[in-house]
Amino acid sequence: MPPEKGNRPRGGKHPRMTAFLAAVLDRRSVLIGLAAVGVTCLSAGAFGAIGAGSPAPAAHTPANDVNWMVTEHTPVPPYFDVARNLKLGSTPQAKCGRGSHPETSWQGRVPAKDYTDGRAAIGYTCNAVEVSHFGNSGGYRVARYVDKHGHVCAFYDSTLLFPTDAAKGDPAGTYVLDMSNPRKPVMTANLTTPAMDTPHESLRLNTKVGLLVADAGSPATQVGIVDVYSVASDCRHPVFESSLPIGPLGHESGFSPDGRTFWATATAREGITAIDLTDPALPRIIWHTETYGSHGMAISPDGNRAYLAAPCCNYFTSISGFGNDSRTGGLVILDISKIQNRTISSPAADVPVIAKLTWPEISIPQNVIPVTIKHHKYLIEFDEFSSNVFQYNPDSSVGAARIIDIGDERKPKVISRIRLAVHNPQERATDQQNDPGANSGTQGYAAHYCAVPRQNDPGIVACSMILSGLRVFDIRDPYHPREVAYFNMPPSGGSHAMSSAAFDPARGDIWYTDGASGFWDVHLTNNAWPRSGAYPTPNF
């Protein structure tokens, strides 16, 4: 069906063309086709990687990697990956103040017994309280925006895996909530053009220009239709601008701070595409490379550097931890100044590599956040899952998060780590592995996304740590981060806290979604969030 009347295409300079595209691309047949392509590509990618790389151990190679991952079999050794024998410890645990309902076990854990005796149903809070809750599902990104008329909106993708999650209850799409009254969110629109229906991890908001953009994605890859909406005038009712197949192999993304360039990134293979949004109704590819792989990426405030969270190599190796190559991913810093100033010689031209960095506990690099703390430049990098999503191996590495010093951008270095006790091998080897969701390669006790309220002296970083819920860390001393708050409301099968959070600094609130329980507005208490000065929403 075509978009709602309130969301009819404006289309900038080309209203007839964009109106036609909106009507065509909103049909269910297109979306069903996208879902089929995503599953096919994921399956083919896994098979191709196994066939092309070093031979995997035959004793437990699955007949279908996708089916194995979805059904979450728990195999016995031998494992794809091997122990790294790391002793990383954990970030100092939060000290919970008045009104908290602390965890009953070690840091980050929800024990199986808490589900059986009813304790888990109460939830686990530390210096955090619920303001409001909406819906029953969520995805990978939450964004907050205040438009030119003062309307306050939340945007979030509603599914972790399209279309299977949509069949469980809430309809698929990108949800728009009117947050003028934070205690009573009101849904005002559901964007259902192809990329907004299945953005995977690509949904991005640029507050400078008021554009909401996504690239049709899946766990491996997708056709790559890029949808563009304007939210500047009335964020409650986004205006369709365009939807075009210009983001090949969609999965994750990046957005230049000035709002002129959207970056579509692939995961199943190398691929980054820079898309010019000077005319949102007619976006165009200005650069594409298959030299570099990037899961997600961030752009420096001046637009001249790209920070890539780069998986190691082929898709199977990067998510299974098989072989030494699985440890070769990490951070890549590129000089993209000629793309930023539009002087790049051709859409296929090379760009200079400034630096590369890896770390011993690497799992699957997810994304990066550039920040400045006391006038010094850092990156916050976070890995998703463990080093082996196909099997529960207690010795698998959980990458979690880290702070990287880029004061000398040619010599980046890890200066501290952000981890919970549940991430470490000694805890993973206990009966922790029997907690609901703990032995799932795509759930489990691991990290997924982090976010900050502003780029300059952010004070805190909030990380979605899947089964452990939302975790908040004080990073004013980047060499010694410490946990200051958490919020976790696990449903019967465990939490799926996997979204990048958004912030309402004036109220001291954090917004995030859980794939199994919906949208949450959480207020930090007991001075857990040291707020001061202006808090412009960061654009990465």
Range of helix content: 10-25%
Mean pLDDT: 86
Sketch the major β-sheet: 5 strands, antiparallel
Q: Tell me the span between the first and last alpha carbons.
A: 33 Å
> Which structural class matches the secondary elements?
alpha+beta
Number of strands: 29
Number of helix segments?
Answer: 9
How much of the sequence is in beta strands? 25-35%
Poorly predicted runs of 5 or more residues: 1-74
Instruction: Provide the spatial order of strands within the biggest beta sheet.
Output: 1-26-25-24-23
The dominant shape is globular
Report the C-alpha radius of gyration, rounded.
21 Å
How does this structure look, described?
The protein is an alpha+beta fold and about 550 residues long. The protein contains nine helices and 29 strands. The strands form seven sheets. Strands 1-26-25-24-23 form a five-stranded antiparallel β-sheet, with no helix packed on it. A four-stranded antiparallel β-sheet has the order 2-29-28-27, with no helix packed on it. The chain has a four-stranded antiparallel β-sheet with strand order 3-4-5-6, with no helix packed on it. A hairpin with a 5-residue loop joins β15 and β16. The two termini are about 35 Å apart.
Topology:
Elements: H1 15-25, H2 28-52, H3 65-71, H4 112-116, H5 119-122, E1 124-126, E2 128-134, E3 142-146, E4 152-157, E5 174-178, E6 186-191, H6 194-197, E7 204-206, E8 211-215, E9 226-230, E10 239-244, E11 252-255, E12 261-265, E13 272-276, E14 284-289, E15 297-299, E16 305-310, H7 315-320, E17 330-335, H8 337-340, E18 353-357, E19 364-373, E20 376-384, E21 401-405, E22 413-418, H9 425-428, E23 449-451, E24 460-464, E25 470-474, E26 482-488, E27 502-504, E28 509-514, E29 518-524
Antiparallel strand pairs: 1-26, 2-29, 3-4, 4-5, 5-6, 7-8, 8-9, 9-10, 11-12, 12-13, 13-14, 15-16, 16-17, 17-18, 19-20, 20-21, 21-22, 23-24, 24-25, 25-26, 27-28, 28-29
